[in-house]
Amino acid sequence: MSDFQPTITGFISPYGDYNLRNTQALGGVSHLWQDFFARALADQPGDGVPESLKFPPVDLDSPVEPTVGSDLLAHIVSQRECNVTDTVVRPPEPLFLPIAEFEMDLADKPAPPFPREEIVAQQKQQDFESGWVRPIVLTAGQPVPEAGPAPQPRPLHLPIAEFEMDLLDKPFPPFSPDELVEQQKQLDFDNGWARPIVLQNLRIAA
């Protein structure tokens, strides 16, 4: 069944009243926060004065001269006489990385050479594999067929453009007589009229 209970107007029932439950829960949380803040304030120092500067209270009615002032002055003087070193702030210096191609000391050291006995042993092992193991593996135990005659070398004839006329560029087709006459007229016009005028204008402008 539901926790909601019907109540008459004006009557607050403690049973199933979620508003009352929320108030009680929030009240408990508020008490917890109050205790937390109270403990934090109690743990926090009041004035923050270091132990070296905490002097006992001065009795003004005492016939003995108080030494609190002289002690404080001695403390201030000792602090002023401390050796203070200034820290010089410099900009970052450029980083020059060594290059292995130019710095031979950074290159890998050459491997030590093999001794003569090890080289001879390696050559024997290679001859054994090339002359006995490899042929047996490739032929699967079958006899090796005899090799036939190899092709004989023949001279290689390369075409030369100076002697092979077929390799040269084809000649350009000749101009027709009408085109030759028109080109000659244009050349005469340029040499006899346009070119002198342009040269004269350039001389005047210069």
Quick structural summary:
By secondary structure, this protein is mostly helical. It is built from 4 helices and no strands.
Structure explained in plain terms:
This protein is mostly helical. It contains four helices and no strands. It has helices at residues 18-43, 68-80, 116-139, 177-205. The longest helix is centred in the last third of the chain and has 29 residues, at 177-205.
Largest sheet: none
Rg of Cα set: 56 Å
Number of strands: 0
Q: Please provide the ordered H/E string of secondary-structure elements.
A: HHHH
Number of discrete helical segments: 4
Spans where pLDDT lies below 50 across 5 or more residues: none
Mean pLDDT: 75
Q: Whole-Å distance between the termini?
A: 114 Å
* Helix content, binned percent: 40-55%
